[in-house]
Amino acid sequence: MSDRGEGFALRSEADWRALAEKALAGAGFDTLTAHTDDGIAYGPLYPRRTPATPIATRAAGWMIAQRLDDPDPARAAAQALVDLEAGAEALALCFEGAGAARGFGLPATEEALAAVLHGVMLDIVHLRIEPHPQGAALVAALTKLAAGQGLAPAALSLDAGIDAIGPLAFAGRFPDDDVKLRAECGALAVSRAAEGFAGRMVEADGRIYHDAGASEAQELGATLATAVYHLRALADAGMPVAHAADAIGFTLAADQQQFLVTAKLRALRLLWRRVLQLSGLASPAPTRLHVETSYRMMAARDPHANILRTTIAAFAAATGGADSLSVLPFTAANGLPEERARRLARNTQLILREESGLGRVADPAAGSGGIEALTDAMAEAGWREFRQIEAEGGIFQSLKAGRLQARIAATRRARDAEIAAGRRPIIGVTLYPLGDERAPPVLIARDETRETGETPTEGTSLKAHRLAEEAEAAA
């Protein structure tokens, strides 16, 4: 018998269904169908899709990125050098006040940036500035720092993270109108491109919506609407549409729902391709997609279960075609992670990429009937959410009026009700809790009541909410 399967009898779908129904003992074949938060039904068996056409066009494995978010610049500088020496290829600089900082973050000063990157060879490391209200000043400080090393902007590999929308959504405070905001965003990106920066200048960040409780379609729709906002801003500032499209990067969250994450990432590429085709680009540039494992899925109780969650999320992101990936340390819900937790996060990616070989195939889900069907369904649901946001005046107006937040809040309430009722268990928290809970070591304990950013207007802010928070508080 060869390894190609000769000698095994061919089985049809009817054969499989008969065996499955026997095992179900009268429970009904429909009990094997699952549903997403958007009501998308997906079953256990699909025919292969041919031809298998890859959506992602990644030429090699993804880039391993490590977050730097320690408020102590000297400690963050030591972390950066350890991470780079041990296999990381990119540093994600997360400054205090950013939506992705979640209560911590590097000091947002030129002096702190210089201290954090002391000893880092800026021309061989990819840098990513997480979207921040003072993003323009941070990019300028990095440019000055590079010049001190004799490096022109063109020598840097940089995602600048300029985002006109995400910081407003996080803070929940909006200007009266967005005319000036959009003009400043476009002019800033155009000027940076003129200086020679070759990376993604602006970012459409879906983590703000995901962390606040959004469904997959809501995260996709909001991220796409943000990208379209930036595309218009760049075009209004005089940048050709093709160049503007290439200047926009995307960020999505990956949780432990493996198939949904893989399909979500693939769906985003389909959605952005559709937008660019409608914008007149026959051959749009590939989508640049950064992924971070989900903060909302992390549990503070029995935190070692988070190692399994982040491993599944990282696997899903890799098979979904992430271009770069940050894995949150398993103690992220407990506080600022120390060296061991950071090392595990980094090595999770190294094992998946280098030992498991996940980066050797650009789109391993291509042709898989179940994933392809789920990708199409998510793309359709994401497109509907995008059109709803556009009908509300675009992402700025939808957020300013609180409409998108209201839909996300409704999704979160429904999910929280399922968790409370036991229909959506959280291992280590609502199911199989530890009898003897011991707090893991962290550099700074998390205080989830600490204020971050400005005081929001009622009902308009999008703050991070972990799935396990209520159950942990009640334990």
Explain the overall architecture.
- The protein is an alpha/beta fold and 475 residues long.
- Helix content is 44%, strand content 10%.
- It contains 16 helices and twelve strands.
- The strands form three sheets. An eight-stranded parallel beta sheet has the order 6-5-4-3-10-9-8-7. A two-stranded antiparallel ribbon has the order 1-2. Strands 11-12 form a two-stranded antiparallel sheet.
- Helix 2 packs parallel to helix 3, helix 6 crosses helix 8 and helix 10 runs parallel beside helix 11.
- It is globular.
- About 2% of the residues have low confidence.
Summarize the structure.
The chain is of the alpha/beta class.
Helix content: 40-55%
Task: Summarize the helix and strand pattern as letters.
Answer: HEEEHEHEHEHHEHHHEHEHEEHHHHEH
> Taking strands numbered 1, 2, ... along the chain, how are they ordered across the largest sheet?
6-5-4-3-10-9-8-7
Shape: globular
Low-confidence stretches: 449-458
Considering the chains and any ligands shown, give keywords for the structure:
single chain, 475 residues, alpha/beta, eight-stranded parallel beta sheet, two-stranded antiparallel ribbon, globular
List the helices and strands and how they pair.
Blueprint: H1 13-24, E1 34-35, E2 41-42, E3 63-68, H2 73-85, E4 90-93, H3 110-116, E5 126-129, H4 135-148, E6 157-159, H5 166-171, H6 179-195, E7 202-205, H7 207-212, H8 216-236, H9 241-246, E8 248-254, H10 258-278, E9 288-293, H11 305-319, E10 324-326, E11 335-337, H12 339-355, H13 369-391, H14 395-400, H15 403-420, E12 442-445, H16 469-474
Parallel strand pairs: 3-4, 3-10, 4-5, 5-6, 7-8, 8-9, 9-10
Antiparallel strand pairs: 1-2, 11-12
